[in-house]
Amino acid sequence: MLSKKTKYAIKALVALGKNIDMPPMQISKIAEEERIPKKFLEQILLDLRNAGFLYSKKGAGGGYSLNKKPEEIFLVQILRLTDGPVAMLPCASLNFYHKCDECKDEVTCGIRSAFIDVRDATLKILGQTSIADIINREDKLKINI
Q1: pTM of the entire structure?
Q2: What does the alpha-carbon distance between residue 44 and residue 41 come to, in Å, rounded to a whole number?
Q3: Is 141 exposed, middle or buried (0-12, 13-18, 19+ CB in 10 A)?
Q4: Which of 30, 34, 83, 118 has its CA 20 to 30 A from that of 63?
Q5: Is 56 helix (H, G, I), strand (E, B) or coil?
């Protein structure tokens, strides 16, 4: 399951992506529109800014805006930033690999092999799905209502 932090980060990026040609959005507006606790959102936005996804402006007319195009921000990047590994097992992780304590032989471990397939399928989808794709999906779903 996605953590609330990851879900809120994606929701905030989508909100900012929808307002790409507008002035920076204030934290309070994002929090209200997306129903995200303001204090939690502040930390998430700071992490996203520090990772280069957002630009922040202080003072009157200040707030947050995307530092990249929505087409250039992929879900896999956000997930790794907010939750860490994509893989469900440490021995199947590409970036956060750790040997499992109870494993006899990784080479012949069927569990590891299956979860490497899960990781690869997940990475393919998350690595190809951008914030722009999420915005487009939402627009299509609204049309189908």
Answers
A1: 0.89
A2: 5
A3: exposed
A4: 83
A5: strand
Tokens read off for 88: 């469900």
Q: Which H or E run contains 74?
A: none
Report whether 23 contacts 37 (CB < 8 A).
no
The alpha carbon dihedral of 21, 24, 29, 35 has a sign of positive
Task: Look at the chain and count its residues.
Answer: 145
Whole-angstrom distance, CA of residue 53 vs CA of residue 47: 9
3 state DSSP class of 18: helix
Q: State the chain's mean pLDDT as an integer.
A: 93
pLDDT band (50, 70, 90) for residue 1 = confident
Instruction: Give the mean pLDDT of 130-136.
Output: 97
Kindly write down the DSSP assignment for every residue of 90-137, as one continuous string: GGG-SSS----TT-S-GGG-HHHHHHHHHHHHHHHHHHH-BHHHHHHH
* Nearest C-alpha neighbor of 64 from the set 43, 84, 92: 43
